[in-house]
Amino acid sequence: MVVQEFTVDLNKPLVFQVGHLEERYQEWVHQPIVSKEGPRFFGNDVLEFLTRTKWWAVPTIWLPVVCYLFVKSILMGHTIQEVVLMALFGIFIWTLIEYTLHRFLFHIETKTYWSNTAHYLLHGCHHKHPMDSLRLVFPPTATAILCFPFWNLVACFATPSTTPALFGGGLLGYVMYDCTHYYLHHGQPSKDPAKHLKRYHLNHHFRIQDKGFGITSTLWDTVFGTLPPLMTAGKN
To answer: Minimal CA–CA distance to 203: which of 182, 195, 36?
Structure first.
């Protein structure tokens, strides 16, 4: 008996379909569909709404939090210069987190129903529909949930007065990452370094998807040997 292979219907909500691809999911999800109109994820309108985020929501929501955290460390006795240094260190650590998450979590290989489904929600949807502007930045609700374990992690290694500034620096790094990521997809930079980063990132999407994991810089790709070969990708 011949069993017909499952085919994803792009005209129906996708999230609970993609898991059925099983071993074929990885090949399917890395064949991008270039369209500004993103697919529908869920049949439920509330869930569907929660998956869509305007890029400007990220700085609007999180930059005031960053400022509050910096002021909190100042009020606890640190000078502005000390807070600036801690913020820069937090941003630096974020770049490593950005690289690590992208390489080892976002690009994990899956093949079971629920692992495929989770991966599609986490990052696979972005590779399948890279120009979907409403599913490019991280939803604020998910970011808020993740802030709790990251805050506790920083607090384990820092003092009560330095934790706010260090965490604020990391959060600022995240805001810079998400805004940069959106710009690399939808902006038209004419000068370096933005022009180089756009070419670098689109190379990751459309040519060599297992290299070039850095978004805001190529630093950690250089350190860990994941720089792509000489880029020959054409204009987007």
So the answer is: 195
Cβ atoms of residues 17 and 114 within 8 Å = no
CA neighbor of 135 nearest in space, from 203, 41, 205: 41
Instruction: Check whether 1 has a pLDDT greater than 50.
Output: no
pLDDT 10s digits, 115-148: 999 999 999 999 999 999 999 999 999 999 999 9
Whether a cis peptide bond, with omega within 30° of 0, leads into 139 is: no
Question: What are the tokens at 106?
Answer: 């976002």
Q: Is the pLDDT of residue 27 over 60?
A: yes
Model pTM score? 0.91
Q: Which residue has the tokens 């305007």?
A: 54
Helix (H) or strand (E) holding 223: helix 219-224
Alpha carbons 115 and 121: distance in angstroms, whole number: 10
Q: How many other CB atoms are found less than 10 A from the CB of residue 108?
A: 13
Dist. CA 184–CA 96, nearest whole Å? 19
Q: What pLDDT score does 236 carry?
A: 41
The first and second tokens of residue 10, run together, are: 């792009």
CB proximity list for 204: less than 8 A, separation 6 or greater: 211, 212, 213, 228
